[in-house]
Specification:
The structure is a single chain. By secondary structure, this protein is mainly alpha-helical. Helix content is 51%, strand content 11%. The mean pLDDT is 88.
Length: 136
């Protein structure tokens, strides 16, 4: 059983998801240059601009335990509750870390992108551009 679970878990990729690629392509197409998954930064943000202190995370509803879409798998519910709660709490700690250092932290929920990609990304782009202009 654990071999099956391990093979399933190993097939799940932590970065470069389709939705993440769409978000980052949108930002890049608007002339904003960034680094992806910078390992030198806490939590390896999906997008980071150190010069302007901007960190962006694209959070999937399942893995980041979205308050609107929290659904636990029926099998092994205790394990999943502990794992997903830990992920959710870790996200809060990472956000607080960057905010204490005066970084702009942007967390985008997967459901917001699926419901209205353009509006969500327009708001994100506006925040990024504002932070850049405030810093320069």
């Amino acid at each position: 059983m654990s071999e099956i679970k391990n093979s399933r878990m190993s097939s799940i990729h932590a970065s470069r998801t389709k939705i993440e690629n769409l978000v980052l392509s949108f930002i890049w197409s608007h002339g904003i240059r960034y680094r992806r998954n910078n390992a030198s930064l806490l939590g390896k943000p999906d997008m980071a601009i150190k010069k302007y202190k901007i960190a962006l995370f694209v959070d999937s509803c399942f893995w980041h335990f979205c308050p609107l879409h929290r659904k636990l798998p029926k099998n092994n519910a205790e394990y999943w509750l502990a794992k997903l709660t830990k992920n959710f709490e870790r996200d809060k700690v990472i956000t607080e870390h960057y905010e204490k250092l005066n970084w702009l932290v942007i967390r985008i929920w997967e459901h917001d992108l699926k419901e209205d990609f353009l509006s969500t990304m327009s708001a994100v782009l506006k925040k990024i551009q504002q932070k850049i202009s405030d810093t320069e």
